[in-house]
Amino acid sequence: MAQRTTSVTARGFFGRNGTLSEWHPNYEFRPGQLDMAEAVEKALEERRHLLVEAGTGTGKSLAYLIPAFLSGKRVVVSTGTKNLQEQLFFKDVPFLQQHFATPLRVCYMKGRNNYACRQRIYDAEREPVLTGMEEVADFQIIREWEKTTETGDRAEIKTLPENSTAWAKVDARRDLCTGQKCAQFDRCFITQMQRKAMESDIIIVNHHLFFADLAVKEGEYAQIIPDYEAVVFDEAHEIEDVAGQYFGLSVSNHVIDDLRRDIVAVTRRKSLGSADLDRVLVSLQDGVEKFFACFPREEGRKGFQNRHAFAEEYADEYQDLLSALEMTGVHLQMIRESVDEIMPLFGRARELCDTLKTYMESESEEFVYWIERRGRGVFLQATPINVSQLLGEKLFDRVPVAIMTSATLSVGGGFDYVVKRLGVHTPRSLIVTSPFDYQSQAMLYVPQHLPEPRDPAFTKAAADEIVKLLELSEGRAFVLCTSYQSMRALHDRVSFEIDYPVLLQGTGPRNALLEEFKRTKNAVLFATSSFWQGVDVQGDQLSCVIIDKLPFAVPSDPVVAARTEAIKREGGEPFREYQIPQAAIALKQGFGRLIRSRTDRGILALLDHRITKQRYGQIFFDSLPDYAFATRYGELERFWRD
């Protein structure tokens, strides 16, 4: 592990005449960046947890990276998205490396399915695993790239379609990995990634990988990320939701079908099949179809409180599926040849059987059980109602330093909400305001004449208001909606009334839509939650952000409903303690898309006047930056024309 080789401090780097001012020709001294860097430095030295809300434009990436480098500790940096992960590794780290005399030992790690498996690529060349001309063409792209890539990271292949089915047949997911027994183990991209991580002082991951690692440490698999002394969470407002995914349970018809297909592929490739195994796999396919056909046909998420009654009503279908999974495992155990390739399949069959049984029969009241139907997929999910205790035990009590930062962590000027939801004990905290002049750069417009969102007349009135706003801004806008239903309804009404190019979430991959928006003059993008955060469009191309309603979570959502009930049982007020703070953070995220630099200027419009008419609205205003404010369209016009 590296030791600190310099006496330079955070103040020495970020001060008015510090090292950064010498490195960067356009450097601007930012007091907030210095305050944050010193707080991070102190947390690392004193082994204390830290919460930092750093407003947009603070320069928070360097404010935690440089103290991490100087600390001499192995630090994991966990980001909310792969895009931010790559920005740190390919942009910020090389910038710093230019000015450090010694090499910075840094690596980035992603989930295994982001990497190619050399052995699966070689097998696919010899064996009939590809289907159709598209898969064959995509495989040729992958095969040529494999010959030269040093990392095996799919993100390098710019010409491979995002939805390529060929990639799933050659990726390095654990399900089919034979580990050290593999002929390609020493050349394996996963092996190389893990070796690089063992040699690194800074390891850049994303939240999904971080919590997957935290979860497998409790199970039979080896850890993914090497031991570390500190972790920095960037976009820390996402921690509760991501942690809930990995500390819960999940099983679906797709996952079981994938297992069956993988067994068929491996046994055919190795000539290990038998008539008995074929019959078992037919039973498994039949069992999956019949059991999952018992669930409701409606799309979306719904609670599943009646699991035990369901298991009794459909006892034959349930027991048949369990038996088929058990028999699949038994027959895999009986195969003596190619054990290294068969054992991962046996482990998956056993794990799926155990997970399904636990899901259907568990008496635990610490989880909310729910089902989701998406197209042909039926997903059975169990999510912890409260992740704070789990995070306290598995993360905050074990890792000496956890630093959590985001532009949106506080509510009403305090951290009570995030402290309680995450279970972090007595952290230090800091709020660093943005260096932007929001009063002159942005106006928040809340029209008072629209009906309330629950009124049937709201959609038409909101669409008319959006048309007026888009005419004023000449397009160049995001229309961010709180549901797909609202997005489609507003899009259908507005798109025929304006002359600007219109993009709609769902008509293409997210990144492709964003790039199209950036290069299309006067474009308007209608979108939902995935565009509320992690999207950066600087300059005039995005001059208006319109939000249809205050982003309260849907009360009927099974996870929201369970957490609401849990707060009630403890004598709390869920609307004040959970739903309002959650919505305030989401609103800050949505509005945060607009002003990304000192020269940006534009309109923020919220078409929900409850923020001005309900008492709780003050909490939202206290949580937002100090924008200019208007309730009349004429005031907005004057601001825009000035």
Core attributes:
Rossmann fold, 26 helices, seven-stranded parallel β-sheet, Fumarase C, Chain B, domain 1, 4 domains, single chain, 18 strands, globular, 642 residues
- CATH topology tier name of the largest domain: Rossmann fold
Strand segment tally: 18
Query: Largest sheet, if any?
Result: 7 strands, parallel
Helical content class: 40-55%
CATH superfamily of the largest domain: P-loop containing nucleotide triphosphate hydrolases
Short description:
The protein has 642 residues and is α/β, with parallel strands linked by helices. The protein has 26 helices and 18 strands.
Architecture overview:
- The protein is of the alpha/beta class and 642 residues long.
- Strand 8 (367-374) and strand 9 form a beta hairpin.
- The chain is globular, with a radius of gyration of 26 Å.
- Residues 1-5 have low confidence and may be disordered.
What's the structural blueprint in terms of helices and strands?
Layout: H1 10-14, H2 19-23, H3 31-46, E1 50-54, H4 60-71, E2 75-79, H5 82-97, E3 106-108, H6 118-126, H7 132-146, H8 189-198, E4 202-206, H9 207-216, E5 230-234, H10 239-246, E6 249-252, H11 253-269, H12 275-292, E7 300-303, H13 307-313, H14 315-333, H15 339-361, E8 367-374, E9 377-384, H16 388-396, E10 401-406, H17 416-422, E11 428-432, H18 438-441, E12 442-445, H19 458-473, E13 477-480, H20 484-494, E14 502-504, H21 510-519, E15 524-527, E16 544-547, H22 558-569, H23 574-591, E17 602-606, H24 610-613, H25 617-623, E18 628-630, H26 633-641
Parallel strand pairs: 1-10, 1-11, 2-4, 2-5, 3-4, 5-10, 12-17, 12-18, 13-15, 13-16, 14-15, 16-17
Antiparallel strand pairs: 6-9, 7-8, 8-9
Helix pairs in contact: 3-4, 4-5, 9-10, 11-12, 11-15, 12-14, 14-15, 19-20, 22-23
